[in-house]
Design brief:
The complex is a heterodimer. Chain A is an alpha/beta fold. Chain A folds into 2 domains: about 170 residues, 3-Layer(aba) Sandwich (Rossmann fold), CATH 3.40.50; about 70 residues, no CATH class. A 6-stranded mixed beta sheet of chain A has the order 6-7-8-3-9-10, with helices on both faces. In chain A, strands 2-1-4-5 form a 4-stranded antiparallel beta sheet, covered by helices on one side. In chain A, strand 9 and strand 10 form a beta hairpin. Chain A is globular. Chain B is an all-alpha fold. Chain B folds into 2 domains: about 220 residues, no CATH class; about 290 residues, ABC transporter involved in vitamin B12 uptake, BtuC. In chain B, about 75% of the residues lie in helices and about 0% in strands. In chain B, the strands form 2 sheets. In chain B, strands 1-2 form a two-stranded antiparallel sheet. In chain B, strands 3-4 form a two-stranded antiparallel sheet. The termini of chain B are far apart. The chains are: A alpha/beta, B mainly alpha.
Chain lengths: ~250, ~625
């Protein structure tokens, strides 16, 4: 049974077909990496999944429910967590409050005019922060954190609605190589223990091949290959895309 | 008949287009919304009037006066740019708007000093003082000259921007300021020259409409509100858009006035509403490019009051409670004004600080509250208690209606739209003589028997304002308050965790409107009357200055600001040139203390405590 099923997804900007009939599926608890050169349509694809863009065609089903065209906040309500390529957190709130926000949104909503929101779900938020290793920074303002720490906060926030699926747009972008491996290792451990499926885009091939269960490759808006890391590594078309036809030809001869 | 009316509309569009085009060009390059643009327009009219008298009413004298007036206003624009704006290009938008409003106040008092308070009737244009007959209807000949003016200026601007090196630079700077600076262009010179052109156009608009409309001291704010509507409808930064929108608004006025004079404003509102729903960035505008970091210091954490602060507030409350026993009438009246101003400022701060929405028309809801209460007392003789509920309810409905459109925009667009709505409400109160009493206001709005003693009404004001402020403060720390702060901090993240940002902003806007309405209703009963002034732009700006004075980033700041400002205004409003003094005070404050008094207090407090925790704040 697939957690996410994408069928014939397409989007054009002006005359440019950014994504052209992409289909793939994501099994429960699976880590799927989406790779491809710049301009391959990864971001467009991603933004259609998370609700930022409305697809021209195609369907996106999460646990059987259609997502295409839903606003990001509705996508989240269905149980999909999300991290941004450039982190987005609430700078005027503490790390703990940022996670509390996710929990409040998931469990009660924000229409209350009375009572102290800061007192809600503190333990749960602290537990999530402990899991991502941010306990010591819980009371600091998000506006003053180092970038790598912000990525961890985002991960904790993304987990706050008990998601069945995490969408991570370049989760390690802007980080030092050692930090990247550490963060992706942490992410992989958490999602495996909770059975969360993950779709992530990534430029760092070390990260991709170390953690992905499966890889899909996009080029010029179309899906050109998919399979296990080993299969993708050996795929001739993938080599051609990444190394250029001359290099592929040279390798063959 | 229809043709003549159409031509009249085109003629009235001319000066509107000139002002809006100047506003648009200045904004495009400097990113400053120049509030003082209406003042440039007014100065154009006044200076042209004086020059015609000096040069004589012949063709050369008249047209020479118009041109010289425009050039003089351009020069004044340069002075303003060099003295004030150049110092605050990097300040947050709010401060820039406020500084230019300081210029508005200064120009108002100087104009009154030079030209006197009476309306001046414009001279007739020589050779164009007759009327032409079109299908049996008469059209003033001068209207034809005005009709020709807009396309001439539009064409001239097009040539200037597309055929000269300077124009190319201006277009480039409009697209990417940093890039132009990086290419080694002298930015200071470019900005000053753009300001000259913008002010010149406004001055030309004011001078050119002199034979039609004359000159008076109200035209500055009237034209700026209309120009904001034109810019919002046409799209910020687009001159063609400004032209189309000016023609649209001009025609609406021309035809609306045939149907029902009061309806022209409603029509303007409807057109703006339709355009904004279909094209939120205006007819020819482009969406604001997001991603640019907000100017100004990072938002600090908000924490509930500590023990020391709580004691300080309780002590203040105790003082306020015993005040009637120890203070005279004069102090009591001032204290009431301060309390009402504090609630008004606090309600504005609620949407501005935690909500991140800078409203330039918050007086609309203050005034709706005041008028709602006063109208009920005046027409239906309802008791005070009911009127004090009905006023805020009316203000709340007004805020729901206007807010629905406003929250679709952000930044300067939001500010301009709130101002335009406030000016529309003001015009309705000002013009609808039969219902609102127009300029004469509504009198005889006195408190109920039990609250008629000054001390009794003071306690009522104290309870309701303190209650309102505590309620809003509580809301900031409740879930709702966290949600609107989330929407301010990061709309992207807020959306991604399921928060409907626009909806929460809308509700916050309405809530602030209700409490501003409560302040307005209390104000009406404390004065015994209401006037259109309660809805006017200066009243909106009063609240902004209070918040700014106290500091946007602190929760108690607006209260200090309200006290300081109300006391200051009470003291200087007895002086002859109080607007001048106030205007200069605002400008100086903006240039010197971009964090406000509250921010200064907090810095001092932090420094006293050693500020170790904050010292590690990342750049």
């Amino acid at each position: 049974m697939s957690t996410l099923e994408v069928q014939g997804l397409a989007k054009a900007f002006g005359g440019v077909q950014a994504v052209d009939g992409v289909s793939f599926a994501l099994a429960e608890g699976e880590l799927l990496a989406m790779i491809g050169p710049n301009g391959a349509g990864k971001s467009t694809c991603f933004n259609m999944l998370n609700g930022q863009l409305r697809p021209d065609e195609g369907s996106i089903r999460f646990r059987g429910r259609e997502l295409a065209g839903l606003a990001p906040r509705r996508v989240w309500r269905l149980g999909i967590g999300r991290t941004f390529q450039i982190t987005a957190t609430f700078a005027s709130m503490t790390v703990l409050e940022n996670v509390q926000m996710g929990l409040i949104s998931h469990r009660r909503g924000f229409s209350g005019l009375l009572g102290r929101a800061g007192a809600l779900y503190r333990e749960e938020a602290a537990a999530l922060l402990a899991r991502v290793g941010m306990t010591e920074q819980a009371e600091r303002a998000c506006g003053v954190l180092a970038y790598g720490d912000l990525k961890r906060v985002e991960l904790a926030v993304a987990l706050s609605n008990d998601p069945g699926l995490l969408l991570m747009d370049e989760p390690t972008a802007g980080m030092a190589p050692a930090e990247r491996v550490e963060l992706m290792g942490l992410t992989a451990a958490i999602v495996r223990e909770r059975g969360i499926a993950v779709l992530f885009t990534e430029h760092d091939m070390d990260v991709v091949f170390a953690h992905a269960d499966r890889i899909i490759v996009l080029n010029r808006g179309a899906l050109v290959a998919q399979g296990s890391p080993a299969e993708v590594r050996d795929d001739a078309r993938v080599r051609e895309i990444y190394l250029g036809s001359a290099a592929a030809g040279a390798g063959a001869s | 008949m229809i043709l003549v009316q159409f031509l009249t509309g085109l003629a009235s569009a001319a000066s509107l287009f000139l002002v809006a085009a100047g506003l648009s060009i200045i904004f495009g390059v400097t990113r400053i919304v120049n509030f003082a643009h209406g003042s440039f327009y007014m100065l154009g009219a006044y200076i042209a009037y004086s020059l015609v008298q000096r040069l004589g009413g012949g063709p050369l004298g008249f047209w020479g006066a118009v041109l010289l007036a425009a050039l003089a206003v351009g020069a004044i624009g340069v002075v303003v740019e060099v003295l004030v704006l150049r110092r605050i290009y990097r300040a947050p938008e709010l401060f820039q708007l406020l500084a230019t409003f300081g210029v508005v106040l200064v120009v108002q008092d100087l104009s009154q000093w030079i030209w006197g308070p009476e309306d001046l009737l414009g001279p007739r244009a020589p050779g164009l003082d007759g009327a032409v007959q079109i299908f049996g209807e008469y059209l003033p000949e001068y209207d034809l000259a005005l009709i020709a003016l807009s396309p001439l200026v539009l064409g001239g601007l097009w040539l200037l921007f597309h055929r000269t090196r300077w124009g190319t630079l201006v277009r480039a700077a409009t697209q990417d300021r940093e890039m132009v600076a990086a290419l080694g262009v002298n930015q200071a010179w470019l900005f000053t020259s753009v300001f000259f052109l913008g002010a010149f156009l406004a001055g030309l608009g004011g001078a050119a409409q002199l034979p039609k409309g004359g000159a008076d001291l109200l035209i500055d704010l009237n034209i700026i509100a209309a120009a904001f509507v034109v810019v919002v409808v046409g799209g910020m930064g687009s001159i063609t858009g400004a032209f189309l929108a000016a023609v649209l608004i001009g025609e609406l006025n021309a035809f609306g006035i045939l149907v029902f004079p009061e309806i022209t404003l409603v029509l303007m509102f409807l057109v703006m509403a339709v355009v904004l729903v279909i094209r939120p960035w205006g007819l020819m505008g482009k969406p604001e490019t997001p991603g640019h970091a907000r100017a100004g210091p990072a938002e600090p954490l908000l924490a509930p009051a500590g023990r020391h602060h709580r004691w300080a507030w309780l002590a203040l409350l105790a003082v306020l409670l015993v005040l009637p026993a120890v203070a005279g009438d004069f102090t009591l009246v001032l204290a009431m004004e301060i309390l009402i101003a504090a609630l008004f400022a606090y309600s504005l701060h609620f949407i501005m600080g935690p909500g991140g929405m800078v409203s330039f028309g918050h007086a609309a809801y203050f005034g709706l509250g005041a008028y709602g209460a006063a109208l009920l007392v005046h027409h239906l003789a309802v008791p005070m208690e009911l009127a004090l509920v009905a006023g805020p309810v009316l203000a709340g409905f007004g805020a729901l209606l206007f807010g629905w459109f406003c929250v679709r925009l952000s930044g300067v667009y939001f500010a301009m739209l709130t101002l335009a709505f406030a000016q529309i409400t003001w015009s309705v109160a000002f013009q609808w003589y039969g219902f609102t009493g127009g300029d004469d206001g509504l009198l005889g709005v006195w408190p109920a028997e039990w609250a008629s003693a000054r001390a009794a009404y003071y306690y009522l004001v104290l309870v309701l304002t303190a209650g309102g402020i505590l309620f809003l403060r509580g809301t900031i720390f409740a879930r709702f308050g966290y949600a609107i702060r989330a929407g301010r901090d990061s709309p992207l993240r807020a959306d991604a965790i399921g928060i409907d940002v626009q909806r929460h902003q809308w509700m916050a806007f309405a809530l602030a409107g209700i409490l501003a309405g409560l302040a307005g209703a209390l104000y009406a009963f404390s004065k015994g009357s209401v006037f259109p002034d309660e809805l006017s732009i200066p009243r909106s700006v009063d609240a902004l200055v209070m918040v700014l004075l106290g500091g946007v980033q602190t929760l108690s700041g607006p209260l200090f600001g309200a006290a300081a400002f109300t006391w200051l205004q009470d003291t200087i409003s007895r002086l002859e040139f109080w607007r001048l003094i106030l205007g200069i005070t605002i400008i100086v404050l903006v240039v010197l203390f971009p964090q406000g008094l509250g921010g200064v207090f907090r810095q001092v407090e932090e420094r006293l405590r050693g500020g170790a925790a904050e010292a590690e704040r990342a750049p």
